[in-house]
């Protein structure tokens, strides 16, 4: 992923107000992010731990990044499960490593209170799990995949695009 500026990040959000985007805290150590290892930027807001943010870089046809504001549950609803899988990168985690994040829809439907939820890595570090730079906590054996790293990255981006599409459909 190409590095993004603070201005690009703040202006990318499609499902929150400009004021909310202006108030969000950027990831800790923003100036030191491993951009070359990221396929998208995701973080839990250090100033508001029940908020998370995800920024997808622009596609080949449109260079504009798309940012999504997310709500983090106050309690982990997956704790009864032994393990869970992220819907973006398909990394298996102990249940506490995956959270149900909820995004208000963009546009009029979101202003009416409509949301969509998805289970993703609780720390939004999918790119680092794909590359083996971070290891999930997992009870039992990890799944082995036969896909190459590039194929897993492409799959994750397709999954991320599908989630992004769910948030942006019907946007003004």
As an assembly, this protein is: single chain
How many strand segments? 7
Structural class determined from secondary elements: alpha+beta
Q: Provide the succession of SSEs.
A: HHEEEEEEHEHH
- Gyration radius over CA: 16 Å
Task: Give the strand line-up of the largest sheet.
Answer: 1-2-3
Percentage of residues in helical conformation? 10-25%
Overall residue-averaged pLDDT value: 89
In terms of DSSP E residues, the strand content is 15-25%
Whole-number count of domains: 1
How many H/I helical runs?
Answer: 5
Characterise this structure.
The chain has 172 residues and is an alpha+beta fold. It has one domain (6-168). The chain has 5 helices and 7 strands, in the order ααββββββαβαα. The strands form 3 sheets. It has a 3-stranded antiparallel beta sheet with strand order 1-2-3. It has a two-stranded antiparallel sheet with strand order 4-5. A hairpin with a 6-residue loop joins β4 (83-85) and β5.
What are its keywords?
single chain; 172 residues; alpha+beta; three-stranded antiparallel beta sheet; two-stranded antiparallel sheet; 5 helices; 7 strands; globular
Summarize the structure.
With 172 residues, the chain is of the alpha+beta class. It has 5 helices and 7 strands; from the N terminus they run H-H-E-E-E-E-E-E-H-E-H-H.
């Amino acid at each position: 992923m190409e590095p993004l500026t603070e201005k690009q990040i703040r202006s990318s959000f499609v499902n929150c107000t400009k004021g909310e985007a202006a108030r969000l805290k950027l990831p800790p150590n923003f100036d030191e992010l491993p951009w070359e290892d990221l396929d998208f930027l995701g973080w839990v807001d250090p100033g508001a731990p029940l908020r998370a943010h995800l920024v997808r870089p622009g596609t080949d046809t449109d260079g504009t990044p798309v940012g999504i504001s997310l709500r983090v549950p106050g309690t982990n609803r997956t704790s009864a499960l032994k393990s869970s899988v992220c819907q973006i990168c398909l990394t298996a985690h102990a249940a506490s490593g995956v959270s149900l994040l909820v995004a208000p829809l963009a546009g009029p439907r979101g202003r009416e209170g409509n949301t969509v939820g998805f289970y993703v890595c609780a720390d939004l570090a999918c790119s680092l799990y794909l590359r083996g730079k971070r290891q999930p906590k997992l009870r039992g054996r990890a799944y082995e995949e036969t896909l190459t790293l590039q194929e897993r990255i492409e799959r994750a981006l397709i999954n991320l695009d599908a989630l992004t599409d769910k948030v942006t459909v019907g946007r003004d």
